[in-house]
C-alpha cells in the first residue's frame, strides 16, 4: 500500500510538472546580469514596425541580476533592453530563454548572449552598423573642417556604408528567413537605410528576405510590410528602364513635382510654390543632430532673401509625425512631410542618397543646382537670385 501511494504521488507530481510546463509554453524569458548598474532602471521594449512599446522594467539590485518573462509573439519579433541611452537588440521566434551578461559602461557593445543564434547575429550586425556610423561621423567632421575634398568625402562615406553591407549580406543571403536577415536590412545612418530600396543591387537583398518571410510567415505584419515595400521598389525600378518614346508626344518639364501634406494636413504642391520664385528644395530629417543648425541657417537665408523672391520647400523624411510637427509648426517657409519616410519615392526620384539634400529652382522653374556644400549655400542662392 505504501509502495502504491509513493507511485501515485510520483505520477501526480509528474503530471503537475507537465501541466506547469504546458501552461508556460507560450512565454519567453530574458534574463542575465548587468555589472556596475546598481539601482539603475532597465527596460524591456518591443520594437514594432513603426513604434516602440515598453513592456516591463526592473530596478537592478547590487548583484545586477534581472529576469523578464513575456508572452511569446505570434510571429518572430524584435525586442531590446534599454539602460539609460544604451540598447541591446535581440529577436524572439520561439519559447526560448535568452541570457545576457553585460557591463553598465559598455552595455550596448560588449555584452555576451546565449540561447539565441539570431540574437548573436544581431549583435554582429549592430557592431558593424556602429562602426559605419562612427566612420561616417568622423568623415563628416573632417569634411566640415575642410580637411578632405568633396570627392574624397563621398567616396569614403560610400566605402563605410559598403563595409556594413558586406557584413549584412552574409546574414541576409545565408539565412534570408531569419530575424537577423530582416534586422540587417533595416539598419540606418542619419535616418536613411544602408540598403537603398531604389538601388538595383540592394533591392535583391530585399527580395530575398521578402520572399522567404512571405513563404515562412505569410500572415505576419512584417512579411506583408516587407513584401509591399519590395513590390513598390521593383515597380519604380522597372519604370526607370529605357523606353522607346519615339512615337509618344512629349512635353518638357524642368523639375519633378512634389505633392505632400503640411503641418495642417493640407497638400502643398511644389509647382504651386515655384512660379516666379527662386525655390530652395530641402530634404531633411528633424530627428538628426544636425537639423537644428541647418534650420537656423535656412532661417537666416529666408529672412535675408525672402523679399527678393526666395522660397523654401522643405521635405521631412522623419518617421515620427509628432516630433516633426512640433518642430515645423513655427517655421515661416513651406514644410511638408513624406509619410513613407526612408522609403520616400520622391526622395528616390530626386536621387537623394544622404541627408540633408538641397536643390535650387530658378524663377522659370528650372532645376539649376544641386547644392554640394552647405557652407556655400548662400553664395549659390545669391547667384540664382
TrEMBL record:
Signal peptide segment:
1-20
Q: Where is the Thioredoxin domain?
A: 249-385
Read off the InterPro entries from this record. Answer: AhpC/TSA, DUF4369, Thioredoxin-like_sf, Thioredoxin_domain, Thioredoxin_ResA/DsbE_sf
Keyword entries, A-Z: Cytochrome c-type biogenesis, Disulfide bond, Redox-active center, Signal
One GO term describing the cellular component = cell envelope
Q: Where in the cell is it found?
A: Cell envelope
The GO terms this record gives for MF are: antioxidant activity; oxidoreductase activity
- Record's keyword annotation contains Cytoplasm: no
Chief location of this protein within or outside the cell = other
**GO terms under biological process:** cytochrome complex assembly
* Protein name per Swiss-Prot or TrEMBL: TlpA disulfide reductase family protein
The organism is Parabacteroides johnsonii
